[in-house]
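Kindly inspect both lines:
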Amino acid sequence: MVPRLRPTVNNPRRNSRVETTVENCHCLQTDAAWGADTGLAGLGWTVQKNSERSEFGAHCYYVASPLVAEALAMREAVQKCRELGIQRLRCETDSGLLVKAITSRKPSPELYGIISDIVALISEFELIQFRWIPREKNKAADALAKKALRLETIVLNSILRGV
């Protein structure tokens, strides 16, 4: 069951309005892949407006759980959108728990710092929306996250073997 969530996070510093559907905006989709044995996470996200799509990937060490990895992916992606000068953003993820943590602004202790960073970034946007999407609609970000994890695992293994 998908939790009921607020559709939009308002920017308190600007006169942005609540919208159930965000028009004329960029669509951000994020995902993460986590290696339990290494604590390594691959982060992936896409940013799309109309027919133009950009793809991004990154990795993080010492990640405690898949949910923390999902939150890190969202934080990095929202930060990148801010750097790109995007003002209107619809953020989508297949993690209902993450969307609930952001929109309620009541995260679990393991997410507190990351969610606080995301909430601080919200003020940089004219309008920003966070929503859950099914995994089937998040395949591109999922593939980017898995690729980032796989590539960093190869690098890490090479270093550990002294190659």
About this structure: The radius of gyration is 16 Å. The beta strands are 26-35, 40-49, 52-60, 88-93, 127-132.
